[in-house]
């Protein structure tokens, strides 16, 4: 019997066969989600990485359209009103969202789509895509997480304090997710994610 993937779009529900898979990778800021994702994609180019939209400024070395689509708050709010996001959330004073149609198109084409998103967005995906595999990345310790955030050298003390406060709350949510992986050693963590995806 063929399963049916239910895609929530406001009050309407469209049905389409689940040809591909949806994978959600989340965890607190500074835990190394981006680094893990880059390593995973280098090893498994067959995965489709969904590029998120954000209102935050690019960090050094980030490329528009590759790391994120960088847009204004006004434009983001227009896209929200038009129902263009699969999920969206505000985090640390900026909006982040996943473009709906790009993801659904890849799933319909049979691709495994990977989202690297914030906790609130990951919860939205779990609600609308219960069949998605959700992975929560944990730091080896809270002290190590703080060190990683500080080592970035990109945030003010106020921003660091905000990120750490959010991280404490986010870590409590780890049990909500299908798999928890501690990012202590990059190689070990990437192997654990790959094992979860490919058995």
Automatic annotation (TrEMBL):
Essential for recycling GMP and indirectly, cGMP. ATP binds at residues 27-34. Pfam families: Guanylate_kin. Its main location: cytoplasm. Keywords: ATP-binding, Cytoplasm, Kinase, Nucleotide-binding, Transferase. It catalyses: GMP + ATP = GDP + ADP. Belongs to the guanylate kinase family. GO terms for cellular component: cytosol. Residues 20-198 form the Guanylate kinase-like domain. Its EC number is 2.7.4.8. One of its GO terms (molecular function) is ATP binding. It comes from the Bacteria. This is Guanylate kinase. It is found in: Cytoplasm. Coiled coil: none annotated. The keyword Cell inner membrane does not apply. PANTHER family: GUANYLATE KINASE, GUANYLATE KINASE-RELATED.
